Structures are given as structure tokens and as C-alpha cells.
Amino acid sequence: MSPVIDLIRFAAAMMVCLGHAESMYGGGLTSPPPQWMQQAGVNVFFLISGYLISQTLNRRLDDPTSTFRDYAIDRWSRIYSAFLPALLLVAMIDWHAIDLGRAHSETVERFTLRTFAANLFMLQAPDTSLPFGSAAPFWTVAIEFWIYMFVGLVAFSLRDGFTPWRISAIALWRHHSGLVPNRKQHGPGAMATRRLDRASRGSRTESPPF
User: Fold this and answer.
1) 15 near 44, Cβ under 8 Å?
2) Cis omega (within 30 of 0) on the bond before 32?
3) 151-179: per-residue pLDDT in tens?
4) CA-CA 20 to 30 A from 28: which of 51, 59, 134, 195?
5) How far does Cα 152 stand from its chain's mean position?
6) Which pLDDT score, from 0 to 100, does residue 204 have?
7) More confident position, 88 or 27
């Protein structure tokens, strides 16, 4: 990976970290705390992820022996190798904080077996399930995970053909509002969704369906 991309990712991570710290704890810099910093950082992460995943897809699509199954296993293992330890670590820390009576009320509310299971299966997205415990930013991981899978499924379908199960999976994902932010919500995810909807409507009017 390019050092420049690593530097941009580091800067975006610091923006998210500092933005959330200012919002949660208040540093006296501004009142009310700004929201643009962490939102811009998340947008940068999504843009970089889109660029990198397009490179990965291009390499796999150029290989005739590569399948969507190979791509999905690769994405799953890369994400879960970090996400699963993080989820377990959050569970241990939150359990200790709750036991000491020092956990936030929202953390206690979201510290349930049902929420843990939903997060384990990447369902911690708007309108589907809350993030587990104190790990509020986990919602971005779920959305990015399912975007990876959706884009990969469409790309391999365009190369190999739209089988009935692939068409069903694409239709289910597209109409399942819980896995993508809806238009009534705010933030970078909702902005991206509105832009994708506008782009898709424009493409339908400018070119015939395939």
C-alpha cells in the first residue's frame, strides 16, 4: 500500500478520534462541539476503501479462476480478523465497567446478548440493530462490510452472469433499508446513500437497462 494512502488513513483516524473526544468530553474549543471533523474522517475512510476495493476487484476479475466465493472469504477474513477481537475486547471492558457501576446508561442498554449476536453477524446498522455496548462506531464497519459484499456480488455477476440466487441476493440487499442509512438519517452514510440514489436515477434515464 502507498505510504501516501497510509498517511491519509492516519490523518482520517485522528480526525475521527479527536472529533468524538471533543463531542463526548468537551475540550472547551467550541460550543457546541463540531460534528464535521469525525464526519469528514469517516468520509475519507469510505473513499479510500472504495479506491482500494476497486483495485482488489480488478485483479480478481482479471483472473478467470477467481470466484465471488474467493473474494467474499478474503473480505470476511480481513475484516473479522480485527473486528472479532475488538468485539470481544469491548465486551470484557464493558462488563468490567458495568460491574463497577461506572458504565454509561447507553452502554448498559446496548450490553445484551441479542445486540452482541447482531454485531457478530454484522447487523449493527441503522434500522437493524444498535452497536454493541460502548462500541458506537461499529455501525460503520457493518455498512462497509455489506458494501464490500454487494459491490463484489454485482461485479462478479456482470462478469459471470446473473444467476437466480445472485439476482435474489442483490434485490434483497437493495431493498433492505436496515443495511444502508435511509434518507431521513444524517451523517456521511446517509449522504452517500442519497448521492447513489440520485446517480442511479440519472443513469436509468440516460441509458437503457441491461
Assistant:
1) yes
2) yes
3) 899 899 999 988 888 888 777 766 654 55
4) 134
5) 15
6) 39
7) 88
Reported for 52-59, long-range contacts at CB under 8 A and 24+ positions apart, including other chains, are 52/1, 52/5, 53/148, 53/151, 53/152, 57/151, 57/152, 57/155
For the chain, the residue count is 210
Is this prediction's pTM over 0.85?
Answer: no
**pLDDT-based confidence at 195, cuts 50/70/90?**
very low
Residue tagged 449522504 (cell numbers): 191
Instruction: Write out the DSSP string of the chain.
Output: --HHHHHHHHHHHHHHHHHHHHHHH--SSSSSPPSHHHHHHHHHHHHHHHHHHHHHHHHHHH-TT--HHHHHHHHHHHHHHHHHHHHHHHHHHHHHHHHTT-S-HHHHHH-SHHHHHHHHTT--STTT-PPSTT-TTHHHHHHHHHHHHHHHHHHHHHHH---HHHHHHHHHHHH-GGGS--TTS-SHHHHHHHHHHHHHHHHHHHS---
DSSP state letter for 207 = S
CB 185 within 8 A of CB 111: no
